[in-house]
């Protein structure tokens, strides 16, 4: 029996990464045509959509997906009984997919799903918690500063942090896809960034020194219950004037991605070992992707993604292709882990 007949690809959500999630689901849908597609809309309702409807949606990274079918469930919680005996392929990114709450809901209803468990997801989604754990395991990280309310006291601390390090990165404590990322070199840029953040609902941020070097990202693949391997590293080269933000990552503006990364064998091995160590230290399952910087001092960890993108342009599919593995084989393996 085809095991994908019992699978549901869950995608969408209401986070800032819901568009990426739709693009991931489009790619997954092509490789796993037997799986059912559940679209979790930003109003919380669940829609059963066809593969044809999803594939016909254009410009997924910039245009919202809207289905013409009525919802089949008013909420994900009310859909839980229908998941009995099914396996969920989590195609979500950002808050709903990666903060552990979805995993906790599935666990409490005894529903099997791909990726890391609720506890690990929660820790990995918090960039500072991840760094603390990495430091405990002797892995290389940079200092950081937490920003919870952007009140006057915190802004003064942030100004001092900028004066100390000359150039800093300001990013959400729990978010991905470089949404809400700022690179700041002076007080005018800092004021601009703070004004933009405060114009929305203020969420916790963290600041780190900007590290110059080569940007690498390395996938880790749990092939079986006893074997976990790192994938070939990719390099992100930012073209002058570009930035590895949402537009660079998904619209190809101002960046070039190279897989495998054009680095030495020893650098490749070190990058792969670092990603694997962080994956194991956090207790991750299934697959992850770890971002890091390589310079003359060596490697420095940035963050880990427990549900990295699976779009045609994403790094995990690129890295799997480099070792001649397609997404269908990869997910056949992921479903086997759940048995």
Identify the notable features of this structure and list them briefly.
single chain, Rossmann fold, Dna Ligase, domain 1, 6-stranded antiparallel β-sheet, alpha+beta, 5-stranded mixed β-sheet, 339 residues, 15 strands, D-amino Acid Aminotransferase, Chain A, domain 1, 13 helices
Can you characterise this structure?
The protein has 339 residues and is an alpha+beta fold. It has 3 domains: 3-113, Rossmann fold; 124-140 and 212-337, ATP-grasp fold, B domain (D-amino Acid Aminotransferase, Chain A, domain 1, 2-Layer Sandwich); 145-209, 2-Layer Sandwich (Dna Ligase, domain 1). Helix content is 36%, strand content 22%. The chain contains 13 helices and 15 strands. Strands 10, 11, 12, 13, 14 and 15 form a 6-stranded antiparallel sheet that branches. It has a 5-stranded mixed sheet with strand order 3-2-1-4-5, with helices on both faces. A 4-stranded antiparallel sheet has the order 6-9-7-8, covered by helices on one side. A hairpin with a 5-residue loop joins strand 10 (214-222) and strand 11. Helix 5 runs antiparallel to helix 6. The model has no long low-confidence stretch (mean pLDDT 92).
Short description:
With 339 residues, the protein is an alpha+beta fold.
As a percent range, the share of helical residues equals 25-40%
Give a count of the beta strands, DSSP E runs of length 2 or more: 15
Mean pLDDT: 92
**How many individual helices?**
13
């Amino acid at each position: 029996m085809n095991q994908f007949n019992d699978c549901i690809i869950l995608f969408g959500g209401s986070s800032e990464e819901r568009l990426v999630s739709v693009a991931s689901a489009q790619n997954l849908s092509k490789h796993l045509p037997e799986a059912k597609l559940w679209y979790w809309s930003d109003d919380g309702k669940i829609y059963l959509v066809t593969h044809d409807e999803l594939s016909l949606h254009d410009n997924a990274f910039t245009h919202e997906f809207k289905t013409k079918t009525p919802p089949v469930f008013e909420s994900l919680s009310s859909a839980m009984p229908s998941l009995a005996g099914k396996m969920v392929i989590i195609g979500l990114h950002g808050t709903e997919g990666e903060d552990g709450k979805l995993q906790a809901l599935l666990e409490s209803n005894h529903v099997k799903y791909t990726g890391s468990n609720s506890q690990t997801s929660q820790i990995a989604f918090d960039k500072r918690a991840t760094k603390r754990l990495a430091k405990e395991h002797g892995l290389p990280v940079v200092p950081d500063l937490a920003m919870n309310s952007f009140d006057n006291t915190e802004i003064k601390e942030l100004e001092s942090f900028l004066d100390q390090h000359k150039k800093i990165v300001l990013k959400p404590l729990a978010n991905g896809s470089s949404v809400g990322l700022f690179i700041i070199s002076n007080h005018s840029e800092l004021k601009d960034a703070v004004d933009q953040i405060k114009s929305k609902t203020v969420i916790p941020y963290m600041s780190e020194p900007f590290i110059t070097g080569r940007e690498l990202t390395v996938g880790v693949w749990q092939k079986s219950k006893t074997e976990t391997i790192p994938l070939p590293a990719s390099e992100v080269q930012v073209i002058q004037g570009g930035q590895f933000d949402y537009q660079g990552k998904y619209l190809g503006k101002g960046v070039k991605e190279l897989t495998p990364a054009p680095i030495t064998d020893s650098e490749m091995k070190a990058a792969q070992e670092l990603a694997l160590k962080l994956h194991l230290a956090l207790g991750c399952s299934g697959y992850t992707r770890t971002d890091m910087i390589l310079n003359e001092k060596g490697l420095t960890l940035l963050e880990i993604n427990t549900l990295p993108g699976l779009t045609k342009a994403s790094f995990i599919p690129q890295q799997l292709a480099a070792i001649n593995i397609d997404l269908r084989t990869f997910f056949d393996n992921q479903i086997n882990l759940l048995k």
